[in-house]
Every structure is written in C-alpha cells, then in structure tokens.
Amino acid sequence: MPKALLSDRRRHTHAIHRIAAPVPTVPQEYVHLRETDAILVTNWSVLGSDRYAVTARWPEGGIYGGSVPLLLTQTIRQSALLIVHAELAVPVSAQTLIEWMDFNVSTDFYDPKNKPDNLFILLTFKPNNPRSSRIELSILSEGRLVAESLLDYSWIAPGAYRRLRGEHGDVAWGESVPPAPVPPHAVGRAAGHEVLLAASGLPNRWQLRTDVTNRALYDHRVDHVPGLVLIEAAYQATHALTGPGRPPVRVMSTFDRYVEFDAPCWIDAAVVPAPDKGIVRVEVTGVQNGERTFSVYMDCAG
Questions:
Q1: Is the pTM of this model over 0.85?
Q2: In this structure, are 146 and 173 located in the same domain?
Q3: Co-location of 104 and 201 in the same domain
C-alpha cells in the first residue's frame, strides 16, 4: 500500500470517462447478496488488460446505517466480486475467499459534509495463480482519491470447498441466542442489533456476537462468520478502546482460519507502537478454541 494516499492520480480521473453506458442492474448473484438495498455497486466497465472500473452509490442511512468503515469494506468486497464473476469467468457457484485485506482512507472522508454521491472504483488484477489474484483498488469521489485497497482473493470449486469444511459445512443457523451486547455508544453504534461485542469480564476483551438477524452483515446463510463481520468487530473493539473521534485511516487485516459458529470467539484489543506521529495503532485479534483466527491493525487519526 502506498503511504501517501492523496498522490497524483489524474490518470484515474481520465479513466473514469471511459466507463461504458450503465448496466441496467448488477446481478445479485455477482455480489453474493439477496437484499437489493445492500447492493452498492451500480455499473462496471473494462478499461484494458486486467484493469476495470466500477461505479457505486452510497445510500442515505439504510441497511448500513451510514457507517463509513462498513460501507467502505462492502464497496471493496462488492467491486472485487463483481469483476471476478462478470469479467474473470469465475463461476458464481465457486466459494470466494479473502485471505487478507488492507485499505487506507482520507481522514476528511468521515466528515458528513463530504458524503459521496457517486464513487468510482478502479481495479487492477494481478494473478497469483489460476485460482487466486491480487487486487489493487483506488476509490474516487468527485474525481478525488479518497481510499485505496490491496487484497488477495482466491476461489475454490464447490466440491473441494465441501471437503475442506467437513463437518463445519453444515451448521445450525440462527438457533443460538447471542450474548447481550455492550452499550451501543461504547462501540460507536446507534442500536443494540448493530453491536458485535459482548462483555467478557476481562479488560479489553469481548466475546464476538454472531447475530445472524443483522441484515447488514448476514445477508444469507453461510457456514462460517464472514470476514466483513470480523473487520466490523475489530472496528468496534478499536472504538471501545480509544473512544470517539479517532476514525481508522488505515486497516490491515489477515484471516488465518475460519471463525466457526459452534464455539465462542474472543476479541482482544491493545494499543501498540504506531509507525507515524499523530496515529494511534490498535491491534485486534480473534481467538477461538485457543487458536488465532484473524488479526487486524487499525491506525486511527488523532
């Protein structure tokens, strides 16, 4: 990831004007969503060899509640999925996996006055192997670069995925009652159903709440906790640790193993040395059955 977010990206602005006429509707299966109001991407176009453009629109409120981190991670996820299926011929039946995801975002993008109407996402795909690709994204609002992302995507055939998951491929869906949430304001959320953390009785440790009625995070039945949920949990843990007024400007996520529904997952957060002045770095880790499942570094402004 480049350190300077607001670098000279005029070539990106020129590329925007090459986007083709709008596609009437982005197929829901391309972004793995059933709820139409959860779909943020609106159009796509081929710019050249391994380069693509996607347009997106962020709604007022709605299913994502106006959360910039949640909207941003969903925009990255949906843009990558759209191109993987629409242009790279990956079957929609394949299981797609995010192995790691980094992104950074301009601090002033959190200002409500700068809320975007339309976004342009420029993507470059660099194959790692026949079933994996590194994806670079640049996100522009009104021609201005506001965020960048780098992630590794891979995909696996349904049969191979079933063998990989074994007994975890068939889970009890929505039968368990999640523990009580911490107060929403403590994690930067407005309502209890948005909260992903429950008290553990230990400082800076929480239990992950897997409330599958949360439509913003669980659009359809899945056999493990989605990566999007884990990043949102890391954001909430960071907010609980640092307090309000410190939005994340860089997020670095690594997913080591699947987080399952049949055992508690513990979320730990700690402030660690930051690489730059004016930044608070928080390390968030998930532990399940005594093993680390994921880790997220969040660099927060202020």
A1: yes
A2: no
A3: no
